[in-house]
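Replying to the earlier thread about multi-chain prediction with a worked example.

Input:
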Amino acid sequence: MRFQRIHVLQVIVSLIFYIFLWIIRETFPQYGQFVTLLIFYTALGQAFNIFLGMTGYVDFGYVAFLALGMYGGGLAVKIAAEAGLQPVLALVLGPLLASLMAAAVASAVGGVALRLRGAYFAIATIGVNEGLRYLIEGAKIWGGSEGLIIARDLRSLFGDEGFSYVTTIYADTFLIFTAVAAAITTWLIKNSRIGYGLAALREDETAARVMGVNTTAYKIIAFTISALFGGLIGSAWGLKIVAIYPPEAFNITYTVEAIIIVVLGGMGTLLGPIIGGSIYTLAKYYLGVLIPGFQLLVFSAILIIVAVAFPYGLLGHIRGYIRNYALRELLR
Amino acid sequence: MDLEPLLFNITAGLILGSIYGISTIGLSLIFGVMRIVNVGHGSFIMLGAYIAYWLFTLYGLVPLVSLAVAFTLGLALGMAIFYIMVRRFLGAPEISSLMAMFGLGVMLEEIAKQFWGIDYRGYSWYLGAIPYLGLRLQVTSILGAVLGLIAAIAIFLFLFKTGVGTSIRAVVQDPVGAYICGIDVHRIYSTSVGIGLGMTMLGGVLLTLYNPTGINPYMGQPYTLKAFVIAVLGGLGSPLGAYIGGLIFGLVESGVTYIFSQMGSPSPGSLALFLGFMLLIILLLAKPEGLMRR
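Result:
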């Protein structure tokens, strides 16, 4: 792996953004809700970008990995509270269990479903997502449709003050770290053999196969890594919502939001999720403030416009106008 | 396990399946012709249901009239949507069309919400009930199933006995070849989107015959997902396969729900749906061209 200086700068820019986010979070608690959303959406974008952005495969069931993460994190809290373990163990066990569950399901599903292409793959992933949801509801796994409610367990573990600390500062910080880890992973993959292989398969999978790129393995790797980060995000998000119900946890809206963020920023670019996530959060938050009740209407209009006008994302659009090589590479 | 209730459930499943099938023909047709997955499919079913509801409650028009109204409106809407939106996604990566169709679905839901609110609505059009196997079947739901069958036959005749239908089948097989042979491919595309959405909205009307309650802006979501399973069952892109797929899915859903409830499962409906989606994945992997391979 040899890095150009400009690509090192890329990763530094993203790191600065996340440090900046963290500082804002610490110094202006009044913007707490907005910053939390911003952290969540950029993290979601960073995680999903590893699969959607790099392979061009549309995973319409990505939220399943978030949901598995929520359940993993929630179960760890429940187990720790019931067995009377050290409170800290719940926070260590949660992400571990969440990432393990998400990655296990992803490698199983990926190994099977990634043989399909295009629309067929999108439909299969929707099927996996809904199937998991109805399995949890129907077989009464983890509380079934009554949900997995961890508020009381969190209170018994950490006390009242600890509860508000864990559900706000700790969860947000964890999300920032997840986003940074996903960004660095993206950068490492992009500049490695796997990244070049994925770029080839995104352009033309058949040709890539013929040229000896191990497309199957690379797809599964990207899918699993992306799911693992999705699970980590879910485990932190579960701490914030403290009650996990299948219809909400598996809600397809999260998937579509992740798709918007990745596509808006620019598929497969390193800074794309930051740009897409920021724009999306600003739009969503202020629409909710300005025209409550109408935000979904505007959201759907934006969705259609983005799909029609920026099929290659905002970054891709801007890059087309930039003549300076260094700047273009920065936005790669 | 009694046999009579099971038989009754099979009949109910076939009735529901006929309506499912009609509601899914449009999805399959649009995919077959343009390779575009209509992720906003359920919203058009919702529109059809509202048409049936409003015409009945405001003007006292029976759903038989609503069928024609829904189909005509769907046809016009579909052509408009094609020329405004869908035209731009031909040959674009899937992601654009998936995003835009999803956005369109959400938009229709939100417009319905602004106009009519989020309360559940329902109407009652009672034609009597037929005693059957110790239980009672509503005449309206039988009528819905029969009308569904008639609509399926009509679509079949249209596709196989008319010039436009033949052109549509030609475009499904090979758009480039059809273009070379002098078929105006864009017109076929717009016609297909129109007929597809018309059939979907007609399906929404029929659905209210089976279950005239629970009409609200978000009622379409479960149908979108079921439609995917049904369309894959019949072979994506085959409109007639979709109808038969609907019958199979209706049977499976109704029968399996009954069996699970006999086994004492607290939420048999969810388990039946889980099996449905398992079926979808297995089918996609084993026979993506569907069960009715021509």
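The interface with chain B takes residues 52, 56, 58, 60, 112-113, 115-116, 118-120, 122-124, 126-128, 130-131, 134-135, 137-140, 144-145, 256, 259-260, 263, 267, 294, 296-297, 299-304, 306-308, 311 of chain A (CB under 8 Å).

Feel free to reuse this layout for your own posts.
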